[in-house]
Write a structure and sequence with these properties.
The structure holds two protein chains of two kinds.
Chain A lengths: L7 H12 L3 H12 L5 H8 L7 E7 L5 H14 L4 E7 L8 E3 L14 E7 L6 H15 L4 E7 L3 H7 L4 E6 L6 H9 L5 E4 L7 H14 L10 E3 L8 H17 L2 H32 L1 H10 L5 H13 L4
Helix pairs in contact in A: 1-2, 1-3, 2-5, 4-9, 5-6
Chain B lengths: L7 E5 L8 H12 L3 E4 L6 H11 L3 E6 L4 H14 L6 E6 L6 H6 L4 E3 L5 H11 L5
Parallel strand pairs in B: 1-2, 1-3, 3-4, 4-5
The chains are: A alpha/beta, B alpha/beta.
Chain lengths: ~325, ~140
Amino acid sequence: MEEERKPLAKVEEIARGVLAGDRRSIAKAITIIESNAPEAKKLISLIYPHTGKAHVIGLTGPGGSGKSTLIEKMVREYRRRGKTVGIVAIDPTSPFTGGAFLGDRIRMQELSTDEGVFIRSMATRNYAGGIAKATKDAVKILDAAGKDMVIVETVGAGQSEVEIIKVAHTIVVVHAPGLGDEIQAIKAGLMEIADIFVVNKADRENADKAVIDIQAMLQLGDRETAWKTPILKTTAITGDGVPQLVEKIEEHRIFLEKGLGFKRSLGKAEAELVDVIKEIVANSIIEELKREGIFEEVLREIVERKIDPASAAQKLLNKKFGKTH
Amino acid sequence: MRGERKIRVLIAKPGLDSHDRGAKVVARALRDAGMEVIYTGLRQTPEQIVETALQEDVDVIGLSILSGAHKALFPRIMELLKEKGLTDIMVFAGGIIPEEDMPELKKLGIKEIFGPGTPTEKIIQFVLENVPKRK
């Protein structure tokens, strides 16, 4: 579907709306960055100076661990404390049809009419630049709109989710008893990035065993860090343990501000800058190669099994820049 | 490099009935047709539906109702959409809605009403043909 080109003035209007906290403008702005529209860059450049105020929480964990319900209760706690909240809930796009079923709101719908809360569902799509970039930009929009807290929810199932969640200051990994080998998934990718572990559904009988499992995992790690990753128990459905979780997140924020905060920000900025440079450079090289016609030629050779993709890439780059490696 | 503009659809169930099989079947069919479908769950107030449509910046809203309260709820939803300036969203409905109520509902701006047993292909086709062109 080809959308009409929007005049630049419209982007400026939307950016102004975002900064004023106007909900319609926030929604439109996220659509612009989601569809990677031509005005996306302009939009981000306009709002970027106003970002950096929100505390961004990444919340991840296996499906069925109760993330959405937990977020709903966390938001209520934040609202009690007078904080405004933005939520980005990410669900996978079907690789077969390109469609997506976005159902995270089901557990949060009572929040939808609260003026201090903004919820947006995002599908992972096949983003140019990756879902991580689209998510980062959505977070920037909610941040610029004045939300005190921004929560990013995603199913922690793979590397791309680990990337998404890295947009956050504080990463909360949620687990629940009785999910069986799901603990393996946590082991595989999420252990190192967790700032806080939560065992949700703590009213279930195996909750303590889940806590012990995570404790054991944490002890295996040989990192000597100033922040000791805590393990908290919550029962999202009743709200038990949620104030303590919110308190712990606040502790982590203070910890970051006291010490590592700036260093961590530099690290994040570096990662983002490197990603953007890679994207720009790669795209421009690929486009040139396509124009020159050699791209297609090599593609065919890969399909015909005459050359493997890595060697093909090397060959193309050698041709373009002379032998560098 | 430009990403694709996806059709975003909100499937919502206003009112008090608790049967969402039909809504889920339609949601799934639209997803399988490549759309991004936001589902809100049961018992939504008109305010919640319209606010969700606004935050999610959807192109289309599909309302499912079986309770018979459409004559009270649909006008309120259409009124709120107008109030919030969301008149560019296309609205269709489905469920148990008597034939004689249809003209009145369509006059409110509801583009189409599908009864029980409508093939999902027909609904997909309808959405694809009537999705508003974005300004």
